[in-house]
Design goal:
By secondary structure, this protein is mainly alpha-helical. The chain is built from eight helices and no strands. Helix 3 packs antiparallel against helix 4. It is globular and about 60 Å long. The relative contact order is 0.10. The N terminus is likely disordered.
């Protein structure tokens, strides 16, 4: 039986539904924001609550907010879907699972951390993260219109970030501000 997104959209999300959806994602997903964000986008789209493209537009805005990007993205998306109650549900759905997971994992690591099977599990979970991050970069990058100047700017900034990792945050912020300023000046002059 095929899923009908319009039927789900007609009901719409509730704050409680958002809480459980985000809590489930944050409980079962390892790897941080770059892994959680694409899972959120796919799940909200699958439920018919928000198109994946719309979620990534929100994700782009969420990066301007301080704090974890998964939290900012969830709060902004949930605010759009259910208002203030949705924002509260998103906050709790994103924060509560990792809080309890940290308590549980710290107990497990202190008890079983030296076991080879436990170490292999952590290595295996960690090896999946680069692939998921690469998929997210590909999805986000494929939606951007690339010009030779944008390609050069992006590669140059990536190279500087690799060569000077100690200063990555100020370099990244300065680079982004410079690129947007240059692009807006070029657009105005045309």
């Amino acid at each position: 039986m095929k899923h009908d997104p319009s039927a789900t959209l007609a009901r719409g999300p509730t704050p409680w539904g958002l809480f459980w959806t985000l809590a489930k994602i944050n409980t079962l997903t390892l790897g941080g924001g770059y892994v959680i964000v694409p899972v959120m986008a796919m799940d909200l789209d699958k439920k018919g609550w928000m198109k994946e493209k719309d979620f990534y537009d929100i994700f782009a805005r969420a990066q301007a907010f301080p704090g974890p990007m998964a939290l900012s993205s969830a709060i902004l998306a949930s605010t759009q879907l259910c208002g203030f109650k949705g924002a509260v549900a998103a906050f709790l759905g994103v924060i509560i699972p990792p809080f309890f997971a940290l308590i549980l994992v710290s107990g497990l690591v202190s008890t079983y951390g030296s076991l080879p099977a436990f170490k292999r599990f952590l290595d295996g979970a960690g090896s999946v993260v680069p692939g998921i991050v690469a998929a997210m970069i590909w999805k986000t990058g494929s939606k951007r219109s690339w010009t030779p100047a944008r390609i050069f700017e992006t590669l140059a900034l990536a190279l500087v970030l690799i060569l000077l990792p100690k200063y990555s945050l100020p370099i990244l912020l300065l680079g982004i501000a410079s690129f947007y300023t240059a692009e807006s000046l070029c657009t105005r002059s045309k």
